[in-house]
Design goal:
Elements: H1 10-29, H2 34-41, H3 45-62
Helix pairs in contact: 1-2, 2-3
Length: about 60
């Protein structure tokens, strides 16, 4: 896995927060269909799956 020493910018954090919120909304709207949610978001389905996986991993680490 690649590591980056640079801290995320405020803009990138805002974009990620918006994408996460939109992802949750669109996955609910599509009944859990990640491929359809990705289409609505305008991103690749594999990217959205990876984002969800990373978010789940981060959530599990916090517990």
């Amino acid at each position: 896995m690649l590591e980056c020493d640079a801290a995320p910018t405020t803009r990138s954090i805002k974009v990620n927060v918006r994408l996460i919120a939109a992802t949750n909304r669109d996955i609910e709207q599509t009944g859990g269909n990640v491929t359809e949610a990705a289409r609505l978001l305008g991103v690749q389905a594999n990217y959205l799956r990876r984002l969800i996986s990373n978010l789940n991993s981060m959530t599990a680490l916090k517990k």
